[in-house]
Amino acid sequence: MAKVIVWNLMTLDGFFEGKEKWDLSFHNDAWGDELSALSSEFGRKAGLLVFGRVTYEGMKAYWTTTQEEEGETKAFMNALPKLVASRSLTGSDWNNTTVTADIAGEIISRKAASEKDIYVFGSAELTEALLAAGLVDEIMLAVAPVTIGQGTPLFKTGTEKRRFALLAARPLENGTVILHYAVKAGPAGV
Questions:
Q1: Distance of alpha carbon 1 from alpha carbon 111, whole angstroms
Q2: Tell me, what's the pLDDT at 188?
């Protein structure tokens, strides 16, 4: 059975994007050869990429038009099967993309049908919904050594307490730290 793994970059003060939508300038503080190698590893391990609608629109716009040399990352972003959670979209013209209004049902079905991991990229709203439904197995975060003071938090306020078990913590040469957690099962606080 596949695992559902949430992956995101965030600032030390907990934001996954800046004050404006798609303000990801802090990614430059985290990016380097080590994170590039990790991205390639995700591409080799992934059986499915999952996005919320907003993240999907930004990813599609970037990865289908970028002229930058992105190597393996660009190749896997365009080639791998993708699943988009949306109540407003009905289809996609991005290669290997399926849109669904029933993301929980699709995740349950695809987890059971695959051995390769399912990666959720970005998508704070979707991450919250999948955590609430008990469908996330692991969370991996790249914490950039920078604060930005304001932006969109990765984890939503007002949600129930959740517990995580540290699987690994890996500092990178540029000061970024990769934190890898398993989501603990059971009621909050247990």
A1: 6
A2: 47
> Count of CB atoms within 10 A of residue 186's CB?
8
Does residue 104 sit in helix, strand or coil? Answer: helix
pTM over the 0.85 mark? yes
- Using 70 as the pLDDT threshold, list the residues of the chain that sit under it: 68-70, 186-190
Distance CA 21, CA 58 (A): 10
Strand order across the 97-100 sheet: 97-100, 82-85, 46-52, 117-121, 4-11, 138-144, 177-183, 164-171
> Would you say 184 and 163 are in contact if contact means Cβ atoms under 8 Å apart?
yes
Which single residue is written with the structure tokens 């979209």? 89
Per DSSP, the three-state class of 160 is coil
Rg, the chain, Cα only: 16
Write out the H or E segment, with its range, that includes residue 100.
strand 97-100
